[in-house]
Amino acid sequence: MTQKDITFVADFLTEHFNEAPELYNRKGKYFNVERVGQYLKDEDDDLVSPPNTEGNQWFNFLKNSTHLKESPLLFPYYPEKSLHFVKRQMEGVIDQCLQKPADVIGKSVHQAVCMSLYRTSQSEDSTPQLFKLPFLWNDKTSNIHYVLFTILENSISKIYILKRHTDTSRSVSNGILAVEFGNFLNNSMNESSDSRCYSCLDAHFYDDETVTVVLKESVEQEGKERVLAQLPLS
């Protein structure tokens, strides 16, 4: 160790571990603990060495402001407490703020329609994920809400489009439909249906009238083609 290192450690011990007679009647150690670590203890006890807020511009600003001093919008400051204590206090306040909206929103949500998309076995084995890439789109012009998704087990060459009117009292025709890609990209009628079969990797709405899909060849072979296609919703 260099002399600089030794001096640094000595200064640290001198500053932080001096005897503190005023703390003898307090619970815990009779020494001034390291000032950073005390903030991280998950305890409700007061800090052994609270910070000096004298000259703090923010505190002075609040103290001199008659409107902000008692404002319920400002989170109270606990100079004697650790960050863990403050965190618990803040979580409690946030939970209380969110509870009322959660109750109101929860009571306003109701089931508009129920559709059986697929059935899974009732065994206790973990059920594989069958519902893939749900993508939501809201057409504000016609007030239609769309959901794009695929079902892996049924047919990987299909994407499903579910549409509902944003006014749940109204219905729209063809509430759910499937688009099958299969071998529609074959160049000629002579190609076998199995040679160029495509499945959907991803699908998103491009705009209110167009769906963008990423397709791949289903045949297991090197150099599988990837196709980016834009399909008119009509």
From TrEMBL:
According to its UniProt entry, the protein's GO biological process terms are:
anaphase-promoting complex-dependent catabolic process; cell division; protein K11-linked ubiquitination
**GO CC, alphabetical:** anaphase-promoting complex; nuclear periphery
The answer to keyword Cell division applying to this record is yes
Give the coiled coil ranges.
none
InterPro entries in the record, alphabetically? APC4, APC4_C
Q: Keywords in alphabetical order, please.
A: Cell cycle, Cell division, Mitosis, Ubl conjugation pathway
- Ranges for domain Anaphase-promoting complex subunit 4 C-terminal half WD40: 136-234
**Any Pfam family the entry gives:** WD40_APC4_C-half
Source organism, top-level taxon: Eukaryota
Under the heading PANTHER family, the entry gives: ANAPHASE PROMOTING COMPLEX SUBUNIT 4 APC4, ANAPHASE-PROMOTING COMPLEX SUBUNIT 4
Q: What is this protein called?
A: APC4 protein
Originating species:
Nyctibius bracteatus (Rufous potoo)
Taxonomic lineage = Eukaryota, Metazoa, Chordata, Craniata, Vertebrata
Provide the gene name from the record: Anapc4
